[in-house]
Amino acid sequence: MCRLAAYIGTEIPLENIIARPRHSLLVQSQDAQEAKLRVNGDGFGIAWYGHLPEPGLFKDVLPAWADTNLPSICRLVRSRLFLAHVRAATTGASSRENCHPFTHGRWAFMHNGGIGNFGHLRRDMEALIGDDYYALRRGTTDSELFFLMMLSNGLDEDAPAALRKTLAQLLGIAERRGTAGQPIRLTCAFSDGARIFAFRFADDRQAPTLYLSDCLDHGGRAFASEPLEGPCARWRTVEQDLLYELAPNRLDVHAIAAAPTPMAVVAPLRSLSA
Asked: Which residue intervals define the domain Glutamine amidotransferase type-2 in the entry (predicted)?
């Protein structure tokens, strides 16, 4: 299992999420508390947004704690919205192309979990990707294919609808092909540079963990696989089967299985140090 974090709010150094908190993403890369594997050392990546619509991207196959460039980048690069990921490989070799986040245009996407019996389902998944998007494929992971399926299903126009359609297609393939008793578990975060979307879904109801913070001390909010402060009441669990859409001053929640109408939720913004 991987660990991930995503931030939106006032512009801050990347290190405020990735390196400085007591249970930062960097700490989680070596000592995850809510994952099957405590160590996530099969690469890392960061996608951050600045003055252009497309995100910057930095990723490598080194463990996050072993890359000597990462501390300087996290200290000096500032962003109002960024996604960060440390990888524990489940499908696909340890290569830069297989490290998250994956990007296209204004979108950045990252995933924790796995698609059961992926090797048996992969060909049917590939067949649902449009030619233009299939040409973008660089790696061999189930995560990248799921992202390309969402792009093919209209992610640019309607993110909740694209996710619903992609999940329905994936579950249809799994029912037809079979997963050999292996679960489909998806905990994902993705962004268009203005909002962060995040969801947890699993066909066995055991999706990997994800939390949403209240207001951080610098005015932003974050998603993280594990609370950046360690366990505390100021981080709430992201519920399964819902798509969270987080903007700087608003949180909307959408059903991703059946109901097409989003439920608007304005979350309280309380102070939180991280």
From this structure: 2-274
- What is residue 203's DSSP assignment? T
244 DSSP β-pair partners: 198, 253
In this predicted structure, what is the pLDDT of residue 264? 41
Based on its alpha-carbon atoms, the radius of gyration of the chain, rounded to whole angstroms, reads 17
What does the block give as tokens for 214? Answer: 């209240």
Domain ranges in the chain are 3-114+184-255
Which pLDDT tens digit goes with each residue over 190-244? 999 999 999 999 999 999 999 999 988 778 999 999 999 877 778 999 999 999 9
Alpha-carbon distance of 225 to 100, in angstroms, equals: 14
Q: Which residues contact 231 (CB under 8 A, 6 or more apart)?
A: none
Distances (CA, A) of 218 to 17, 176, 271, 272: 11, 49, 9, 9
In the numeric block, the tokens 């992971």 are attached to 141
CATH superfamily for domain 3-114+184-255: Aminohydrolase, N-terminal nucleophile (Ntn) domain (3.60.20.10)
CA distance 77 to 74: 6
What's the pTM value of the predicted model, to 2 decimals? 0.91
Which contiguous run of DSSP H or E holds residue 59?
Answer: strand 56-60
Contact 193, 81 (CB under 8 A): yes
Computed over every residue of the chain, the mean pLDDT equals 90
Closest alpha carbon to 170 in 152, 191, 157:
152
d(CA 89, CA 72) in angstroms, rounded, equals 26
First to last CA, the chain: 24
CB proximity list for 66: less than 8 A, separation 6 or greater: 41
204 forms beta bridges with none
Q: So which residues are the catalytic ones? A: 2
